[in-house]
Amino acid sequence: MPKTMCVVGLGYIGLPTAAMFAKADWDVTGVDINSIAVEKLNRGEVHIEEVGLGELVKEVVSKGNLKAQLEPTSAECFIIAVPTPHNDDHTANLNYVVSATKSILPFLNKGNTIIVESTIPPRTMDDVVAPILNGNGWVVGEDIYLAHCPERVLPGRILIELVENTRIVGGINDISAQKATEAYRSFVKGDILITSAVSAEMSKLMENTYRDVNIALANELAKISEKLEINALEVIDLANRHPRVNLHCPGPGVGGHCLAVDPYFIIEKAPEESVLISDSRKINNSMPSFVVEQVKKMYPNRSSKIAVFGLTYKGNIDDVRESPAMDVLEELKEEGYRLGIYDPHVQQEQVYFHLSSYQEAINQADCILILTDHNEFKKLEEDKITSLMNKPVIFDTRNCVNISNTNIEYYNYGNLFKMKNVSLTNV
């Protein structure tokens, strides 16, 4: 008999995880409150964009190894992979984790393993999840086993990294960690490191905080360089020739469900001690406004049309969660600019801004503002740009566009300071 699993939450992590276990011959039931997602999954279709996921889901659904429903069911192993957004004050909103944990209570049996993959603040497993289970009459670590195994994958490579990446398994006790490890061993080829639940929680947060802090350093460099009329990209390239330096590249801000959120979970628990982390968040959150300020320098006339290219927080995905591009759009709209918005990876139902085609976005536009490094943007149709735009100008906040036509004015973080010395008004 195949082992049985119930995965609660079929989003960007839960669905690929459920599909990988199904491929490893587990009998998997996926649970989600989104009825449309459930219906699509049972037809062998997916509701999110991820390389290879559509083919994998079709395969495991057709084999009968994966099905979806709105309510949990009994299983040997439960995985909770629901979102953990932040509240208005940036503290963690654990409502989904609490609700998911309570939803499986009627279906638990002695010997079950419960794994929380959701990103959570330190001590959530000990102080929130375990008490819910203990309060239902179970002795966690003896009757049932509880562990935290944070996801650590890159969108666009999720199916590869679920298999190859090192996994961290933090158990409430040793036997809980061992039970969870046995489950992941069915398909994980990377190392599996066993630790405590609280160390697993903190390690996940620090992985993303490390990256957020380093991006903040690059973004601060971009601001300094703009003021001092220095080529920030050249400085980064030169500094990175040092064998122990690896500066990141600046951008329009930081987005996604990890980097833009996880540092706050640390700040929440130790605000006085997390000064650097807090300052880094402020710097990265300021970048959309910095981008808009550069646009205003070029186009003081608010009747100008800006063609915004890219809404997702990184290239070649459809995920707009916490995307700085959305903040840039809001500020441009408030400033009164006319907008043409184009993203080949985003569907209209995902966003509240009206999406245009490539040609509609650039038609009679004064500037193309690149906010995401999609592959489609690396080589643009230069003939259309020169023929359809009022005056062909590109402001590339991702440093990803290759331009050969000298009639197109091109700006990135290497030459922001030159914006002060040119007049780019409507013609």
Write the layout of secondary structure elements.
Layout: E1 4-8, H1 14-23, E2 27-31, H2 35-42, H3 53-62, E3 66-69, E4 77-80, H4 95-104, E5 113-116, H5 124-134, E6 145-148, H6 158-164, E7 167-171, H7 174-184, E8 192-196, H8 197-228, H9 232-239, H10 262-269, H11 275-298, E9 305-309, H12 324-335, E10 338-342, H13 358-362, E11 367-370, H14 382-388, E12 393-396, E13 409-411
Parallel strand pairs: 1-2, 1-4, 2-3, 4-5, 5-6, 7-8, 9-10, 9-11, 11-12, 12-13
Antiparallel strand pairs: 6-7
Helix pairs in contact: 1-3, 4-5, 8-10, 8-11, 10-11, 11-12
Question: Could you explain the architecture of this structure?
Answer:
With 427 residues, this protein is an alpha/beta fold. The protein has 2 domains: 4-190, NAD(P)-binding Rossmann-like Domain (Rossmann fold); 282-421, Rossmann fold (3-Layer(aba) Sandwich), CATH 3.40.50. The chain contains 14 helices and 13 strands. The strands form 2 sheets. It has an 8-stranded mixed beta sheet, sandwiched between helices. Strands 10-9-11-12-13 form a 5-stranded parallel beta sheet. Helix 7 links the parallel strand 7 (167-171) and strand 8. Helix 4 packs parallel to helix 5, helix 10 (262-269) crosses helix 11 and helix 11 packs across helix 12 (324-335). The chain is globular, with a radius of gyration of 24 Å. The chain starts with a strand and ends in a 16-residue tail after the last strand. The mean pLDDT is 94.
